[in-house]
Design a protein that fits this description.
81 residues; single chain; mainly alpha; 3 helices
């Protein structure tokens, strides 16, 4: 018996990201281009889900870093007062 029959994957990812953020990590965003790999990983008993989530965390951190670097280069980052 599962309380969310239609959106169980969304609920699971929300819960995972809540736990990650509670522990001081950034959310793990599994992008649409990784969707098939994500499904394959979930079907496999020795899935590699940890690897996929770690790669998603790294990707999120790299994207945030690039975003902040671009803002800094454009002079749109304000110094904290």
């Amino acid at each position: 018996i599962f309380p969310w029959p239609r959106h169980s994957g969304k609920v699971a990812r929300l819960l995972m990201n809540t736990i990650l953020m509670k522990e001081g990590y950034v959310p793990a965003v599994v992008h649409a281009i990784e969707r098939q790999r994500y499904y394959d990983v979930l079907r496999n008993p020795h899935s590699g889900l940890t690897t996929l989530i770690c790669e998603s965390l790294e990707s999120t951190i790299e994207a945030a870093s690039r975003f902040l670097d671009e803002r800094e280069e454009n002079g749109t980052v304000r110094a904290a007062s």
